[in-house]
Amino acid sequence: MNLKISALEYVQEVKTGNISAEDFVAKTIERIQSIDDKLHAFLSINDEAVDQARNIDKKIKSGEKVGDCFGMPISIKDNICIKDSKTTCASKMLENFIAPYDATVITKLKQQDAIFVGKVNMDEFAMGLTTEFSAYGPSKNPWNLEHVPGGSSGGSAVSVSAFECVASLGSDTGGSVRNPASFCSTVGYKPTYGLISRYGLISYANTIEQIGPLTRTVKDTAFMLNLISGIDSNDNTTVDNKNEDYLSGIESGIEGKKIGIIKEMIGDGIDPVVLSATKDAIAKLEGLGAICEEISIDMVKYSVAAYYTISATEAGSNLARYDNIRYGYDFPLEGYEFNSYISKARRNFGPEVTRRMIIGGFVPSAGHAGKYFLKALKVKSKLTREINDAFKKFDFLISPTVPILPFKLGEKIDDPISLFLVDINTITANLTGKPAISIPFSNSNGLPIGIQLMADSMNDKSLLQAAHALEQTVNLPEVPI
Amino acid sequence: MVTEEEIEHVSKLMRIDVDDHKEYVEKVNMMISYFDLLDSAGVNSEEITMPEISISNLRKDEYIPFDDKLIEKLNHYKGTYVRAPKMSS
Fold first, then answer.
1. Residue A152: inside a domain
2. How far A160 CA sits from the closest chain B CA (Å)?
3. Under an 8 A CB cutoff, do A305 and B38 touch?
4. Beta carbons of B38 and A375 less than 8 Å apart
5. Does residue A46 lie in a domain region?
6. Is A301 part of any domain?
7. Among A481, A411, A443, which Cα is nearest to A141's?
8. Which pTM was predicted?
9. Which of A53, A157, A195, A233 has the greatest number of C-beta atoms within 10 Å?
10. What CATH number does residue A233 fall under?
C-alpha cells in the first residue's frame, strides 16, 4: 500500500476500486502507531477511523452516493472542534475539553466522507512557530528530528510530510500554516480572510486568522478549498465565493503575469541559502513567462511589532473566558476567594500564552493604547494601502516563506525577539487579509525551503494557478523517514 | 520605557499570577520594548480603517435553538444557577 499518494490520487484509486478506504486508513493508522513516537505529530487518534472507512467502502459497493473525499484520512489541528472529541489547543487548560459541536469545516468534510484520523499538535492556543510551546511537548521535523517542524500548525505539517495522513487542516494567524509547511516541505495555504468559516475554530486573534489546508500538492489544496470554503451563517466575516471551483483551470500557467519581489523580505537577516533559492524560484517563474520586478513595501519593517501588538490584544480578550467557571481546568470551589480562584485556574496556561495575555492587557490599556495598540492599527492600515497599491501593478508578490532554514529544537525558545523575526514574511498576508501560499521549493542539506506567493483578496484561484506552475518546476527529495 | 511595576499591575488586572519574574516580567518587558519600533513607522497621521459589514449582510437576529443543553456541562451547574467561589469577605 502506497501511503505517499496525493489526495486526488487517493480519491481516484478508491473510486476505481484499486484500493479500499479501509485498507488505506488502517495502514495510515499503523504508520502513525509505528513512527509517531519519534515525531509526536498527534495528540489524539480516532479509534473509530477504520470502522468509519469500512462503512464508506460499503456505501461504495452498494452504489450509494459517496462524498468527494471517499474516506480520505485527514488530520485536524487541535484547535478545531470535532463534536464529542477532545479539543485541547495543546493546553493544560483544555486538557479535558470535549467539543459540544462541529466546526463548520468539520461539518463540511464529514458531508464529503472525509475521515479524521486524529487531532494534531500545535503551539499552545496557536501562539508560537515551533510547536515547542505545546503543553504536551514539541513535534519533530521529519526531515531532521533535531530540528523544529515550524508552527503553530506543526503537527499538521509533520503528519502530511511523514505520510501519517493525506491532508490536514491548520490555522494561520501570522503564518501558522505556511511556516510549518515551509519547514516540512508541504504546501500550506492561508486563504483570503473570510473565505473559510472560523466557526468552531478556538479563537486567538479573530480579525486576522483563517483556517487553511496543508497538503502534498497545490492541486490537493485547490481540492480541499472546494470542499471547505464559502459563506457560513455562523461566521459573519465569511464572504460569498459563489461556489468557485479552484481546481478548474489550475494548469493555466503564469505567462505574462507580473510578480513583485518584496525587497524587505529578502533583506537583512535572510539566510544566503534561502536567498539563493528565492532567486532560483524567480528565475524559474521568468522562464515560464512571468515578469518579475522588485518592489518596496515600507511597512513590512514594522509589521512584526504591529502583528504582535494586535494579536496579543485580541488574545488577551479571547482568553478571558478561561476562568474555570465557563471554560477551563477543573478543581473544587471550596477554600478560594473569587479572584484567587480564577488566578489559580489561569496558572494552567503555559508561559508563552501567559506572556501574550499580559502584553494583551498592557498594550491597549489606558495611557498605553496610543503608543502601542492604536499605532499598530495605523501600521496595519498603511501596510494594507501599500499592498493594495502593489496589486494595482502586480498580479502576485513573492518572497521566501521564512527567511531562515528550520532551526534546532531549543535554539530560539529563550529569545522572544529572534522568534518574532521568523514571522516577518508571513505576517503581511494576515494583517492585510490577502491569500498566500507556501510551496515546497528547495532543500539545503536535508532541510526544506518554501517559497511564498501572495495575491490580492479573492484572487485565490489565480494564486493557486501560479503556485501550481512553480510547483511543476521542482523535483524534491523524499522525506527520510 | 515600561517599568516592571506596570507589567505586574496589568498582570494582576488580567488575573495572572507572575510568580516567575524572569519568565514573565523580564521577557514581557523585552517583548514590549521591541514594540518601540512602531514609533519610527511615521504613521501618526494615518487613519485607522476598519472592515465594514453592512447590516443586510448579517444573519437575522433570531433565536436558533441548540440541541444540547450546554449549561449542564458546566462543572458547578446546580440546576437553576452556576456556583462560583465566594467574593472576598
1. yes
2. 33
3. yes
4. yes
5. yes
6. no
7. A481
8. 0.97
9. A157
10. 3.90.1300.10
